[in-house]
Design goal:
The chain has 8 helices and no strands. By secondary structure, it is mainly alpha-helical. The chain folds into 2 domains: 39-119, no CATH class; 121-176, no CATH class. Helix 3 crosses helix 5 (92-111) and helix 7 runs antiparallel to helix 8. The longest helix has 23 residues, at 159-181. It is globular.
Length: 185
Amino acid sequence: MARLQPSWCNLFSNREPFEEPENVASVMTILSHLFPLGWKHYLEGGVTIGLGVTLLFALTGLVGGVSSTYSAVWSFFTSFPFFRQERFVATRLWRMAYAMGLILGAALFVMTLGHGHFEITAVPWWQLLVGGVIVGFGARMANGCTSGHGICGLASLQLPSLLAVLTFLATAILTAHAVHALGGF
């Protein structure tokens, strides 16, 4: 059975494993194939997120994970014991402000640098709902979402976060290969 490879893999076909590119132009060619829409905005976004999480922790001692906001918000509306835990009730106000800052920050970007243009997905609402439930369930099982473990957990050298990130990546790679093998994407 022939192995499928992305089109950019042929850039490496004439090289020995771990061989350095001959020049900067080769690196830029590889980057342009890997990131056809550019890579600078990914770098800028990563640096901005990293600085934001670092400032939050340095100034307040709070970890900037977002998935626990869901449980903290439920503590306003239910008396179910899980949602009434001190860690949710005591942090719900700043977590709500944090989540609103993410939403308002995105809106501000769209209105200023995005020139009022934003993308609307073609994914049906029911698929978004099912995906959200699955991701929410997984985030609760893993005690945090991919971003929380990947950004905040790894930055604080937490072994459980490293294990969670490796599990997320392995699952994503296997899922992508399975979907591709079944004729999707």
